Amino acid sequence: MERTKKKVAVFDIDGTIFRSSLLIELVENLIDRGLFPQEARELYRKERAGWLDRTSGYEAYINAVVRSFLKHIKGVPFLEFDEIASDMVDRHRSRVYRFTRDLIAQLKSEDFYLLAISQSPKGVLDKFCDSFGFDKVYGRFYELGPGDRFTGKVVDEHLIANKANIVKRAVEKEGLTLEGSYGVGDTEDDMPFLELVTHPIAFNPNSGLYRYAKINDWRVVVERKDVIYEVHENF
Questions:
Q1: Phi and psi at residue 79, in whole multiples of 5°?
Q2: Is the CA virtual torsion 226, 228, 229, 231 positive or negative?
């Protein structure tokens, strides 16, 4: 008798479950704890101000943070990094959106296979996603060199960049099904995997994803303060 395949639910993490970016919080903590120099913050100060003042976009901000991280992670001992990352996750793990938190719990109770995909560091994602019961977590894996120090290189970066291929590989490898599947994302980067699932949800989407979601009649959900609502009108 053939085993019934589990349905899969795919979640982006930053800005979709976590109410910030794990990478941003991590870099800020690495600077505050002295593992990164204070000048690391200067590499994204302008872009952060532009984002807060709404004179430029979030993408410019997060890309500047990524550049700062890549520049300063080289030579950092893994154990010291891991201690700071663990402390950060412990303090921030409850800072999540209610909608996605409750949806995860619902799908978990219905025996969905929970898959997380993010551009944040894999080790930090593992710590954050563990408390939600994710079955598989994909993130950026940073290479370790002699003395268990980071080299500054990302391992197989081309693989994590393609979220749709990750979902397809996971479905095949784990014996899952996309029939009846769910996907939740918040930016254009999530569109490739949202196109694969039966029930795509654009959650707190940026303008690019919002427009695409409305064209394709996807569900659009917004959580603002203590209100969760769906958007039905045309953009």
A1: -65, -40
A2: positive
